[in-house]
Structures are given as C-alpha cells and as structure tokens.
Amino acid sequence: MANLSNEFLYAFRGLRKSPGFAITSILTLALGIGAVTAVFSVVNSVLLRPYAFREPGELIVWRETMREVRGRYPLLPDNYKHYLYLKAHSKTIADAAILQNASFAVTVGENHPQVVSGLSVSSNFFPVLGITPALGRSFLPEEDRKVGSNVVVITWSASERFFGTEQGVLGRSLQIGGEQKTVVGVLPKTFAFPAVNEMAGGARPGELSRYEIFQTLVPQEQDLTTDDSAFSFLVLARLRQGVSVKTAGTELDEMQQAYSLSNHLPVHLGTWVEPLSEEVTGSISKALWLLLAAVLAVLLIGCVNLASLQLARCVARDRDNAVRAALGAGHRHLFQVAFAESLVLSAVGAFTGVLLAFTVVRGFVAIAPANLPRLNEVHVSWPVLLFAAGLSILTALGFGILPALRTLQTDPQQLLQSGSARIFSARKATSTRRVLVTFEIATTVVLLVFTGLVARSFSKVLNQDRAFDSTSTIVAQVDLVSPKYSQGADSGASARSAFVDRSLDRLRSNANVQSAAITSTMPLTGEINIYSVRRPDRPLPESETPMANLRNVSPLYFATMRIPLSKGQEFQEKEREHPHDAVISQKAAEVAWPGESALGRTFQINGGTYSVTGIASDARIADLKIDTPVVYLPYWHDPPSSVFFLIRTSQPLNAFGPTIRRELWSIDPEIAIPVMKSLNGQINESLAAERFQTTVLSCFGLSALMLAALGIYGVLAYSVSLRTQEFGVRVALGATKNGVIRLVLLDASSPILVGLTVGTAMAAGTTQWIHSLLYETTSADPATIAFSAGALLLAASLAAVIPAYRASNADPMRALRQE
Questions:
Q1: Fewer CB within 10 A of the end CB, N or C, for the chain?
Q2: Taking the domains of the chain in order of start, what are their residue ranges?
Q3: Three-state secondary structure readout of 319-365
Q4: Angle, in degrees to the nearest 10, between helices 2-17 and 19-43
C-alpha cells in the first residue's frame, strides 16, 4: 500500500509539472464521459428501466394482421369480438384487457373546459397491470357492460389539480363532457402508463405519455358482432408464468388463423405479439442506441488521442525509467508508475464528467422531442453512476495500458549509452501511434457516414414538395363536449354542423383572416381513419382493394391549405343538397382507377356511396414521409366532434390566437380549445425526433472530426520534432522547402489512406442497421460516403500542413551542430 501511495503521489507530481497535458486529458475525458453518461441516462430511463408494474416482463401487447393489406398496413388495431375469443381460449395468456385512447373535456368551476388525456379500458385493466388504487377501488366487472357508466378512476396528479389537497376525493364528481362522473379511485403517485397508439408505431408526434383519467370501455353492438371491420382497439395482456413472448405469439396467431377459416371470413387474419416495453419504445429505440454508439465512438477516439499523448510522454521519460531499472526497479513497479497516471486522469475526468452529466441531461431533456417515452423520468441515477465508474476504468485501460506495457520493454543499458537508442525507441512509439491514428480515422469515417446519412435523410424530408402551404396558417382544435352535440334524432350532427357554420362565418368576417376552413383530423399526425375504397363497377378481392385515409373538410379547405386541384372543383356551400360529392387525391385516383379517369366515377367508402367531383394534388397532410391516398368528404356528411380550424391570417399566432379563442367562445363558451398552434409549428413537432437525432449526431460527428484532426496533428508534430536533425541535414544538402513538405505529407498519407479505406469498408457494412431511420436515402449512398471521406481527408490534410511547414523551416546549421 505504501508503494501504491507513492506511485499515485508521483503521478500527481508528474501531472502538475505538465499542466497542458493534464488539462487537455481531463477535459477530453470529462466531455467524453459526461456525454456518454448523459446519453446512457436517457437510454436507461427510456429503454432499460422496467415499468413500475407487477412483473413488467410478463406484459405484452397484441395486434391483428390481415394478409390482404399486409403490404401497406403490416399491423392493425384489434377487433373486440376477436379479443373476447382469444382471451377465452388462449392457454398462454393469464388475463387480457382492451383499451382505447380517449380525450376528456373537464370543466372546473366557471372556467372553460380543459381537455385531459385518458383511456377507455375494460374493467380488468388495472388488475392486468398489477396496480391497486391508492384510494378507493378500480372498476367492477359489471361497469364495462353498463351503457353510460358514470364512474372514473383518476391519477394522483389529476386529483390534486382538480380537487386541490382537500380530503374526501372519493365520491366527488367531475364534469366531463357536460356530464357528471363520480371518482371511485385514485391511482398511486408513482403510476404512469406510457403513451400507446392503436395503430402500430408508438405515440404520434406531439403526443405525451400522460394519461390522467380512466373510464370503462363499453362495447357497441357492432363491436360485438363484426368480424372483418371495427379494428379500433389495443389489447394489453399478461403472460402465464414461464411462457415466452414467442410461444404466446405463435399460439395466438394460429388461433386467429383457425378462427378465420372456421368462420369463413373474407379475409385471412393473424396476430402479432410484442412486449409492452418494445411497443412503447419501438419507434425510438434504434435512434437512442445509435446516439449511444455515436457518443461511445467519440469517447473512443478521444482515448486514442490520449494514448498517443501518453506514448509520447513515455518516450520522453525513457531515460528516467532506464535509471530506475538500473537501480533495481522491477517491471511491475515501472508498469504501476506509468499506469497510475492514467488512473489519476480517469478518476478526475470521470468525477468532472459526472458533474457535467447532470447539466447535459437537463439540456438533453430540454431539446428532446416531446413524445419521447418516459422523458419526465430521465435523470442521473445510481445505475448510471455505476456505469460512469465502470466507464472511467475502461478509459483508463483504454488509453493507459499500451503506454504502461511499453515500460516492460525498457533496456537500461541501451538507453543510457546514447541518444540514438532513444530516437530509435521514439520512432517505434511513433509507429504505434500511427496504428492508433489509423484506427481513429476509420472510426471517424463510420461516424461521419452515419451522421451524413441521417442529415441527408432529414434534408430530403424538409425540402420535398408537400403540395400545401403552411405559412401564415393557424390550427385551432375545438372539442364539442356539451351533451347537445351528441343528442337528438341525428345524434347531434345538426348541432355540430351549426356550430361549424357559425364559427366559419365569424372567422371569415374578420379583416385579418384571408380564408378559413375545417378538417376532421389534425394535419401530420399519421395515417388515421383508413378505409377500403370499393368500386361498384369492378368488385375486387379484399387483398386487391385499395385503401385511403378519410378526411371530412369544409368548403375553402383546399384554398386555405393552398392544395391545387388538377381536375374538377372543391366543395361549395350550395352543394349541401348533394352530400355525396367527394374530392380525392391524385394517388387515390391512381390506385382506384389505374389508367382511367376518376372524375365523375362512383365509389364506396365507410358504408357510403360517393361521386368524384374533384381530384387534388397529393398533399402530404398525414405524414411528410408518406404519400398517402386521401378521400375528402364534405363535413356536413358527418360533422366531427373534434374540429380542427385552419385560419390563414396576416397576424402572428401570439397576436391573433386570443382573437380566435374569443370568437369561438362567444358562440359557445362550453367548447374546449386544447390546441392552438401555427401549422409550421405542427410541422416542426412532427419532425422533432428527426431534428433532434440529426442535431445530436452532427455534434458527435463534428467532435469526432476535430479529435481525428488533432490526433493526426499530434502524431506528425511529434514525428517532425524527432526528425528535426534529419530535415536540417536534407536542407543543407539542397532539399527545397516544397520537397520537405511533400516528404512529410507523404509520410502522413499512409495512416490516413489506410484509415479511410478501412473506415469506408466498415461504414458500407454497418449502415444497413440504420436503414429504417432513413427517408428516400439508401444506406450505402455513394454521395454521402464520398462526402464523409472527403471531409475527413480535408481535415487530415489541414492538420498535416502545419507540421510539414515547420519541418521545411528546419535550420541546417543548428542541425549540424547537434549530437
């Protein structure tokens, strides 16, 4: 212990005498370890930490498959009738609950209603999760069969928000959708169910995993009787103990296929099963692992640079080690002395890096997309700190073991005889450093190619033709929550239509409004309301029937969105007497009437028959990455209960937003307006994940490029310092400056070119892994690979020029006077 203590004290003294090296090393390690710790904090919180449910590994989600539409829609939501059948007959499922996303308009006091996210669930939802309410009870079995059930279970945060800290929350009433609902249970403070989506793909852009109100899901008659439609739900199940996800998936899929055959269904159904954790993080997990790999690569490159610096210091201390060896120091002692310095640097760098990680995590959370699962749970925890400690040990081994091993080759007699041996030894160290630089360049090429591919993909999404104009347009969501909008002989359709008419008239009369319209779906929230488009004149089997997204819109919708019509015309107010007119997108016309004119043709969708009166350009209103077929119907055919107003105005959102709210509430103060944003803001939200991924990867790529350039500069600068006498002699014998510069650059070219070759080959072999993250960009895109290699070659050339220029200025008289 005394010897170890002395070695660490000696390491501290040595580092204090080389403050430049010490500060550079500690900052490199702190930044690297801090960034890795921060990214791992996110990976740990989002991907690795189990959910706070009973045996979370047993929880699965299942969806249905339909062979006839698998090419476009690999997974479908669940059918209620199929859920009941599989639940009753499965031998691998202990229990299963069914659920559906819901929004609740809650009115507190005299305020306008506020929309709260929640779920409609079967009565066994909380038992399947293994959650018991902190107060009260969960749902009773009979409550999910009782039409108009008026009980809800709420989260602890919702209880505090709606009732404050008052006691006696149980039995209190909440006004939801204009009706009184009784609170029968309050969930534990730690309860948080992640955001899910009935369609596959995780949460939609901008959707947060914050469900606060739960009500019973009461199936409608069509849900209990329909087999080949009504796919509207998601099933959450718990496996029997010891049953694997694969076994359950195989059983359920075979049962579903047998059910299709025995009931002579016109479609071929199946089942797809995956763990709940993968369901929640499936859309983001690969991107997070990619970010972690990128930041680890940056840390690795930094360690290579530090190892190179340590090798140079070892050469400078060769004579000291030779003296120690001559005086009796053994190989183990020399190794410990050299390695102690690396341990000290790693310890200080890790401590500084962990302190930095707390700040980096806060910044990471601030710029991360809002729909990142479990974002509110991201923090630096004890497992993360243990990871940082292990990482610091690995970095010490990574950049300290090679220089320390070199001390075992110390030959005191040879080193003490003359300086030539030292120069020979230094050149051996330089050769090792060249190998390290080659590895560094190869790793940097791979990271730059990954970064370039993601950036190119994001650029294509941003710059493609959207076929609509998002500038100067405000989107306002209005939820019609009063009972009057759901009652009457027409189930409130006339009341909803009257509200839309009055609101559009009021908004269009404002001098600052250029045009206004409504749509039934928020733009850029994915494919929603997907139905088969059937032609009466040409019946097709289900596998060949085209599908389209259905949107209910008002007159002036296409003018407001500035979506051009290639044929026909958009809806007019006078056409209310002809509710069966429809406008379809060019893509819908091509898939439904290939090689034919669609204008004036008749088709069926969602149980209704319509005539094509107009063909619109293919506007990417559902997803900027997908050119989806769309069918537009006039809103008076089926006035939506959630209306999305599109207002094109000369005023900015912060100036005109209050006016929109005032105008709408003047018509009906009981409506809820949960969302008010610019259409450009909605586009930015839909691209938040891609923008975040591109930004962070670009930072890592630039850091790697800078570190690689520094590594090349360090190797060449040190090599030039060893060959100063040689260059002086060359100049004395007539070598020109350009000749010396060329000699140094040629000397530098071998590790650079080998690194570029190896790195390009590695990139070509590994980029297939991120193919699913790219849009209209091949994983082996030659332009991106060439640009990445060219950028690194340019940076390497610039890093080599300075040492080469210094070598060309060698003083021949000084060189000839040296030993």
A1: N
A2: 57-281, 482-669
A3: HHHHHHHHCCCCHHHHHHHHHHHHHHHHHHHHHHHHHHHHHHHHHHH
A4: 110
